[in-house]
Amino acid sequence: MILCCATATLKAQHSFAFNNGPAMHKFQDSLSRLSDETFNATSNSERYTKNAAFIKTLVNSLKTQGSFLYPFDSLKKITILKSPDNSFRIFSWYVPLDDGSYRFFGTIQIATKDGKLKMFPLIDDTANIKDTNGINGNKNWYGARYYEIIPVIMNGQQPYYVLIGWKGNSLKTSKKVIDVLSFNKEQQPIFGKPVFEEAKSKATRNRIVFEYNKQNTMTVTLDKNVNMIVFDHLAPISEEMMGNFEYYASDLSFDAYKLLNGRLKLVENIELKNEPNQMDDLFSDPKDKKIKAIKKL
Q1: Strands 88-96 and 102-110
Q2: Could you give the C-alpha distances from 141 to 29, 134, 171, 174, in angstroms and in order?
Q3: 254 pLDDT band (50/70/90 cuts)?
């Protein structure tokens, strides 16, 4: 059982020639313009109207023969992640709202042998999801803008994929999520899987959600040096603020999830051995007790 970022054996072998570049370029130009107009809009209604036009144009572009091969690399406000086994890719983006919250949008495009469109739209149902530890489909998606995809391969069995994403939240807090994507026997996407174990328990969780002060930053990423998903440990600035995530920030320590027996086991307070860098002298060592850490709040 391995956690890897390397390209795996291709599931879909493309036998067609992609010759629709000019048409896709035009679609991309339109999508870039509509994306900018969505983010520059001054009201929720205008944002939704522009975003609806963006979605319609995106769907039309994906209907183009061989569109799976087109990178859409000029679209800066949406994230496109292709699975390392080249079997699908995920488009995800958000629309900021007047109250400081966000609405997420996305789709999963499946690679097909003949280049025809097969996709699953992702419908953000966050407002109606009471249990963030639930298992969801594409029509009741716990929305996020994903920025990293990590395949988990287990003895030749159908892999699942770890997705790391930014979720935003409100005027006061931000969220990040570690989710799991798999496909059932009907090849329908499923989000969430009971693979996350706490350090001192065998009880499992289906996804991990972090919440912290909006003015702070939090790192969640795959560290290839240790082959684990590493993240900042979040803590309140004082015991009185326990459970009030507006006052949570990194305490300069790190935890991680490591793949063990097909599950992601929490490893607390890990040591990170960064490669030497000429910029290191510009930063103080958090372990140096003589140097007081700068409070982020």
Answers
A1: antiparallel
A2: 28, 10, 22, 18
A3: very high
